[in-house]
Amino acid sequence: MANKQRRGTSPAAPDPEVAPEHSFEGDYRPRTDEAQQTPNIRVDPLHQVEFLHTLADALNTTLDLNTLMHRVSDLVRAVIDYKIFAILLINDRTQELWMRFQIGHTPEIERTRLKMGRGVVGQSALQRRTLRIDDVSKEEHYIEANPTVRSELAVPLIVKNRVIGVFDIESEIPAYFTAEHQRLLELVASRVAIAVENARLYTRVSRQAQTLAVLNEISREITSILDLDDLLERIGQLMKRVIDYQMFTILLWNERSQQFEHRFSSRYGERIMRDRTVPLGEGIIGSAAQDRESILAPDVRKEPRYLAVNPETRSELAVPLIYKGQVIGVIDLEHTRVNYYNEDHQRTLSTLAAQVAISIANARLYQRIHEEEQRMERDLEMARQVQLRLMPPQPPKLERAEFAAQFNAARSIGGDVYDFLDYGPGRVALAVGDVSGKAAPAALYAALVSGILRSLATQHLSPAALLSALNDQLQERRLDSQYVTMLVAIWDDSNQTIQIANAGSVQPLFVSLSSSGSRTTVDIKTIQAEGFPLGLFPDVEYEEFTLSTRTGDLIVFFSDGIPDAENAKGDMFGTDRLAKVLKSQRQPTASSMVDAIQKAVSDFQSGTEHFDDETIVVLRAL
Prior knowledge:
The chain is of the alpha+beta class and 622 residues long. It has three domains: 45-204, Beta-Lactamase, CATH 3.30.450.40; 225-367, GAF domain (Beta-Lactamase), CATH 3.30.450.40; 391-621, Phosphatase 2c, domain 1 (4-Layer Sandwich), CATH 3.60.40.10. It contains 13 helices and 23 strands. It has helices spanning 32-35, 48-60, 65-79, 107-110, 119-127, 179-222, 228-239, 283-291, 343-390, 439-457, 463-476, 574-584, 590-605, and strands spanning 84-91, 96-103, 113-115, 131-133, 151-159, 162-171, 247-254, 259-267, 270-272, 277-279, 295-297, 315-323, 326-335, 401-408, 416-422, 427-435, 484-492, 497-503, 509-516, 519-526, 545-548, 554-558, 614-621. Strands 7, 8, 9, 10, 11, 12 and 13 form a seven-stranded antiparallel beta sheet that branches. Helix 2 (48-60) runs antiparallel to helix 3. The protein is rod-shaped. Residues 1-34 are annotated as: Disordered. This is Sigma-B regulation protein RsbU (Phosphoserine phosphatase). It comes from Edaphobacter modestus.
């Protein structure tokens, strides 16, 4: 084992003391003349059956490869007093022998990899037969690993006609190993080979089961992360649990630039920022994306597609992230060791990449939705401010009447509209309307109605004529399934009368107060004004009522959001509860009456989400 190999030599001729090759798997039976030689071992042949029973027990009672090899080394030492003992196994991918277990070698020798045919061990594996070397100084294939070694015995481990490794024993005594040693070690090797293969199979199955469990756990965790930056960082952390790496990168495809951009990069456990982009088809990363297949580069120095971004990189594994048939990114792992990544890593990462792609797509979709929601919130807030500007900042002030109003939108913006229109000295037109629908469409239609209403107000039309004109204007701008209910009232401050016309709106309440001594009586009547909503039918005429008021009388206008307000049980506030609120007020002002109604409705709802816009306007005669 170790440092150098003689050049210019041909393979050694078969040892005459070693049995010729045969087709029997694991058949190490000695020739007749070898069997007759006097064994130079410390176990009496009569006790070899006991030794085989002990060997069988040692092999059959564990599936842990490390435990198995320690037991084998102890058993072999019981019959052969060796100086150096090693079990080398073949890497199926690289076809190299590496020390899985050793006693007596230095760490440098333990890390050595042997190609098939190199050294005594490599020759034993290549020729599929035992090599017993009495004097290593005369063996052309011998590699000097320890200057004190004089003799060597190498026995191949064969399972199902396939060499999986080699037993190697070395001694400081020339010609130390006998034919009986050889026969016994071959016997041990034939059984150990099966045990080693079973242990390796068990290890692979256990590792696969563990990997699948970890992959399942990772999949569950990453699907719950919706912030893209947090998701990518967590993927990098969780990836370490199944595949070790020294450099980790996730690149995502940018449709605008048509390139892959670094979204997350880690180097030796530290997050780093990279501005480099990768075009489709460039390097290992771009090629993996273009071919839509993972690329495993055991040695990047031999990979023509490799671009030397990290000079210390020796092995690389790149897997495309595919979602709904589209490549959305690439996961790239790098390591400083040659042949570090293998097919198992490739399969594991490819399996995980499918779930990673879904999680990234979900996170990006959530990010777009979140950004869109934020934009809509900003737009709605602006629309709300615009809508509030369309409503009068404060009620008009008259000598013989007072007004108060309150508007609460069910959402950020609503479809209710009210306005006070100047009709000249001592005259004010009041309009209270409710647009069909809610939120932005209703608010936009309400803005349209408000604009038309104000344009018509300059004509100082009567309530009925104003509603008819407004209906005609909406007919010219008709929108399917859009209409508005509205009540228009004109107050004349000179004689304290009010003219009312209604286009499908909630009928207002007339509250009159009468006193008899110390007793005040509250009388509530519904103003029976009716009519078709605006915007549905052409050429509609409306009825008009004129009412006289006395000092202290109130007229309460409200939208249907007041009586239709619901509590947690689904009960409606109704007009009866509204009447109780009106009767409970003694000598109210317009403002106090609005506050009382609003408080009663709010207490009734008790935190329940508002179903409809709520508008209250109160007129009180002074």
